[in-house]
Write a structure and sequence with these properties.
About 45% of the residues lie in helices and about 10% in strands. The chain is built from five helices and three strands; from the N terminus they run E-H-E-E-H-H-H-H. The chain has a three-stranded parallel β-sheet with strand order 2-1-3, covered by helices on one side. Helix 4 packs across helix 5.
Length: about 130
């Protein structure tokens, strides 16, 4: 921590690859009392980075399809099969198939377990 004492602001360095995201985060943090963004080359108390696991980092035997990701996202919201079917414009039978595929690919024992596994792996963000 900064050696200026407990009343000195916490200095945060942004290390984000996406310039738009870095600018957005800087804007959000600019007016937070007790925080200050580090200047170029300045030593910071803490660095804020973005973590996006590469597809190869995910411990999945087979990647989830875009539709399976949509189903998984709705599972994370607590939607029932019927609600998922309505939202995605597909049949309940098709939802059951996709849920089964998600459970298999994530090696999950149920819907809640699938969401927990996916969050841990960085597939979804809660």
């Amino acid at each position: 921590m900064s050696e200026d004492g407990p009343s000195s602001p916490l200095v945060i360095a942004l290390r984000l690859d996406d310039p738009a995201l870095a600018e957005r985060v800087a804007g959000l943090l600019a007016d937070v009392p007790g925080l200050r963004l580090a200047g170029a080359g300045e030593v910071a108390d803490i660095a804020l980075t973005a973590f996006r696991p590469a597809e190869s980092d995910l411990d999945l035997e087979a990647p989830l399809t875009p539709r399976e990701l949509e189903v998984l996202t709705l599972l994370a919201e607590g939607a029932s099969n019927k609600a998922i079917a309505r939202r995605l414009g597909i049949s309940v039978h098709t939802v059951k198939f996709h849920v089964g595929q998600v459970l298999d690919k994530l090696d999950a024992t149920g819907r809640t377990d699938a969401v927990a596994h996916a969050a841990r792996l960085g597939v979804i963000h809660l």
